[in-house]
Specification:
InterPro entries: ConA-like_dom_sf, DUF1349
Order of helices and strands: EEEEEEEEEEEEEEE
Shape: globular
Protein name: DUF1349 domain-containing protein
CATH topology: Jelly Rolls
Radius of gyration: 15 Å
Number of strands: 15
Pfam families: DUF1349
Length: 176
């Protein structure tokens, strides 16, 4: 089990609009550098207190090339959401979650990454498929855990049932 804590107004986001918001990059992260194909899986439980508090599985390829798979309070209902940053961040909500826990999975093969979420850790819902590195880059990535509280006074997240598998799912859309 791993516990992460974000302080007040800690986040990782590069606004895609000209609303005068500065990029945020101070959310606490714990990252490793896996080689080859893999899956990183964890059940994420978030102590929601403020809007957009989240527990995150995170991929980092560069300062403006990274992605988040989140269980987030969006802004007042737990939601599986994703952010992919290629210069600027996008933001997409997937589905709502009953309660404060969900299973999250990041997978990689070559330059491709896939995001999945699950209510039980057995049947997986496909959320997103994307790349971060261009064809000239090696696709090397740091992968791990992040906690955020961009609007609140702090957030505690627990990651348990953590698993690492050295392979890519056989089928992204069949629930396995």
């Amino acid at each position: 089990m791993l516990t992460g804590w974000a302080g007040a107004r800690q986040d990782r986001f590069v606004p895609p609009t000209d609303e005068g918001l500065a990029p945020a990059s101070d959310a606490p992260r714990l990252l490793g550098a896996p080689e080859g194909d893999f899956q990183l899986i964890a059940r994420v439980t978030v102590g929601f207190a403020g809007a957009f508090d989240a527990g995150v599985l995170y991929i980092h390829v560069g300062e403006r090339a990274w992605a988040k798979l989140c269980l987030e309070n969006s802004p007042d209902v737990p939601t599986v959401c994703t952010v992919v940053t290629r210069g600027h961040s996008d933001d997409a909500n997937s589905f709502t979650v009953d309660g404060s826990s969900v299973w999250l999975r990041i997978s990689r093969t070559g330059r491709a990454f896939a995001f999945h979420a699950s209510k039980d850790g057995e049947r997986w819902t496909f959320v997103r498929l994307f790349t971060l590195a261009d064809e000239k880059e090696t696709g090397a990535a740091l992968v791990g855990f992040m906690t955020q509280s961009p609007m609140g006074e702090g957030c505690v997240v627990t990651y348990d049932h953590i698993a690492f598998r050295p392979d890519w799912p056989a089928d992204l859309r069949d629930g396995s």
